[in-house]
Specification:
alpha/beta, eight-stranded parallel sheet, four-stranded mixed sheet, 27% helix, globular
């Protein structure tokens, strides 16, 4: 936003110069830039955001007028926040005795100047670590917190922790550890990148530990995560992802042994479902809906423990994210359509949709006679049917391609992610990403002794800067892709991702080159040092 941010009643207020900063605000599920804007914060929430003159006028009128400010709120003398109509403040509010409105007006008028940009707190939905620690390898919550703090001090106020392909035992152990931090409010979800991936597009994933897709592991992880299982990356061409595996009851040929044949893990029958959470909403499908599924997607709907992996994920509110895949365009389209159909059944209007894990990376390259998964994922994103992750760090994708993706799909359907591993914020050297050894040289992480990229080393604000400065993406669009769009992926647009009334008071104050200077999370300002914010 370009303008002023006011934090009244409980801190020294803040105000930017009128020619300064760009504010991004939610406006009918889209963003817009407000010149000379103001953000009003109290009690960890944004209670108003809009044009400075309008907010001042509303405060002087003893209430917020919805005709003049977005999502107006009436600050009543009781301290409650109540919606008002365009007729002005609630009739129960005495016109000249609103102490809170007086306090608010004075805070706005006395706000200190901020000579920079005010952005919503950033939202990273794909991050493996930073600060020398990684989520797949953390042995304690303290180690995991090091990675969280590394990104938080650079303005990522909402963070999803990503794991990598590993044994079921390891994935469950790490899920339980990270769930502790989710329940404490430090993390905002857990993403499993694997183990149901293509050995042909393994990237930095360990092909020896990839497993046959089966709903049993989904149920076990969902139970361990206690509602914090956010997303799972999987390859849609694998048997069991879209259509159920049959017969159920046989043990997968994949094992946890180091000498397991990775190709065998693609062809074995489904793992035994161990009785944990075997039912999902598909059990309640009526005949007409089942017939629709079978007609539109060619899927023979199975129930309970024989449900497909996608069905099991959606049943637990987990977003299927398609990546590390060698699938065809039609296989990608079928998986996206099936996912979105089930989400609409489960969540109704405004339901979430499928996502694409780091578009282009870990996918078969595009060919004009064989477009493959990446081109179809981009087309689905352009149609508003999925959100495409993009690692805009100057290493994973060329600047021109980043620009083209934004122009094709639009910022509403692109989520900037870091895919960061332990080396984010650290020097070049040797690191670990789950079972894989990684060498970082010149800021690029690759599997040791190989050419495969092994995650990123950037902070999310750096991807915003790269998209804006190097790729020609408008700033408001780059910020949208790092805040509001990923918030929608998480189903949390009403609480995070925008400078708008009712959202958490997550703010990132940067200079005009997007260098972080101050970070607020849920209204609390992080401590700062001469080198920038710290936790």
């Amino acid at each position: 936003m370009r303008g002023r941010a006011v934090i009244p009643l409980n801190w020294a207020p803040l105000r930017g110069h009128s020619s300064g900063i760009a504010q991004v605000e939610l406006d009918n599920a889209r963003v817009r830039v407000i010149e000379d804007g103001v953000v009003v914060i109290e009690g960890g929430k944004i209670i108003q955001a809009g044009n400075y003159a309008d907010v001042v006028a509303a405060a002087r009128d003893r209430g917020y007028d919805q005709d003049r400010t977005s999502g107006g709120l009436d600050l009543t003398s009781s301290g409650d926040l109540d919606p008002t109509s365009s007729d002005g403040p609630s009739s129960s509010t005495p016109p000249h005795s609103d102490t809170r409105s007086d306090q608010l007006l004075q805070a706005v008028l006395d706000a200190r100047t901020w000579n920079g940009l005010i952005l919503p707190g950033l939202v990273d939905i794909h991050c493996h670590g930073g600060g020398g620690q990684s989520f797949p390898d953390a042995k304690t919550t303290s180690q995991a917190m090091t990675a969280i703090k590394e990104h938080r001090q650079f303005g990522t106020t909402t963070l999803v922790a990503s794991l990598v392909t590993d044994t079921a035992e390891t994935l469950l152990r790490q899920t339980k550890l990270l769930t502790e931090l989710c329940t404490e409010g430090e993390l905002d979800g857990i993403h499993l990148e694997g183990p149901f991936l293509s050995v042909h597009r393994a990237g930095a994933q360990d092909p020896a530990k990839m497993l046959t897709p089966n709903p049993g592991l989904v149920y076990r992880v969902a139970k361990a995560a206690k509602g914090w299982f956010t997303a799972m990356t999987l390859a849609p061409e694998l048997a069991g992802v879209v259509s159920p595996l049959s017969p159920v009851g046989a043990t997968s040929q994949a094992s946890d042994k180091d000498d397991a044949d990775p190709q065998d893990s693609r062809t074995g029958a489904g793992n035994v479902v161990d009785g944990i959470g075997q039912t999902c909403f598909l059990d309640d499908l009526d005949t007409a809906v089942q017939a629709n599924l079978e007609h539109d997607f060619g899927i023979a709907v199975e129930r309970g423990e024989t449900a497909s992996v996608i069905a099991a994920l959606v049943a637990h509110g987990v977003v299927p994210s398609f990546g590390h895949t060698d699938c065809s365009a039609s296989q990608m389209a079928k998986a996206v359509g099936f996912t979105n159909f089930l989400f609409e059944l489960a969540e109704g209007a405004g339901a979430r949709s499928a996502t694409a894990t780091h578009l282009f990376n870990g996918m078969r390259p595009i060919h004009h006679r064989d477009p493959g998964p990446a081109m179809e994922a981009l087309a689905q994103a352009a149609a508003g049917e999925m959100v495409a992750e993009l690692i805009a760090d100057g290493v994973h994708i060329a600047a021109d391609m980043v620009r083209d993706v934004f122009q094709t799909a639009g910022a509403d359907n692109v989520a900037l992610v870091t895919d960061a591993m332990a080396a984010a914020g650290m020097a070049d050297g040797q690191y670990q990403l789950g079972p894989m050894a990684v060498t970082v040289a010149d800021g690029a992480a690759r599997l040791t002794g190989q050419d495969s990229l092994a995650g990123g080393t950037a902070h999310l604000i750096e991807t915003v800067r790269f998209a804006w400065r190097d790729c020609g993406v408008p700033l408001s669009q780059a910020v949208t892709a790092a805040s509001l769009t990923p918030a929608r992926v998480l189903g949390r647009v009403q609480t995070i991702g925008a400078l708008a009334p009712g959202r958490d008071a997550d703010l990132l104050l940067v200079d005009n080159d997007l260098n972080p200077v101050e970070v607020y999370r849920k209204g609390l300002r992080l401590q700062t040092t001469p080198d920038g914010p710290t936790v």
